[in-house]
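Lab meeting, item 3. Inverse folding demo.
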């Protein structure tokens, strides 16, 4: 069974500028404004969270769209494998999409958000696009 929390791991970050369209391939979304990064698992330069220990982790993300001409599909990825998708492909220029998931990770596993090919997101000083996660319990 899971142990009591001997370690604290939690992060929350936002993007402050638009990203995309991703023309040639999927792009990792860099959430450049860090609200908190307890345990230093989130790397603002790569946009990736790296699990510092084996455990069960909770992740949430939201992305904002303001281009009617492009869809918005953003995936939460673990070690290169898509886990969950948030999308909005309507013609409405102002929309939000998000998703969340609980994952069992091994130490060193990576989790990030990818903007899928030919998609775009918006964000600005209001920080509409965010990525957060925390350790629920260790294994």
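The presenter then showed the designed sequence:
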């Amino acid at each position: 069974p899971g142990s009591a929390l001997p370690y604290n791991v939690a992060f929350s970050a936002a993007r402050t500028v638009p990203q995309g369209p991703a023309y040639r391939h999927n792009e990792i979304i860099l959430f450049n404004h860090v609200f908190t990064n307890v345990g230093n698992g989130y790397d603002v330069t790569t946009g990736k969270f790296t699990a510092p220990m084996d455990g069960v982790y909770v992740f949430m993300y939201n992305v904002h769209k303001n281009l009617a001409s492009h869809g918005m599909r953003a995936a939460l990825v673990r070690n290169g494998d898509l886990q969950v998708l948030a999308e909005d492909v309507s013609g409405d220029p102002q929309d939000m999409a998000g998703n969340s998931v609980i994952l069992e990770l091994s130490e060193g596993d990576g989790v990030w958000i990818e903007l899928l090919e030919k998609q775009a997101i918006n964000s600005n000083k209001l920080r509409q696009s965010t990525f957060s996660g925390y350790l629920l319990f260790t294994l």
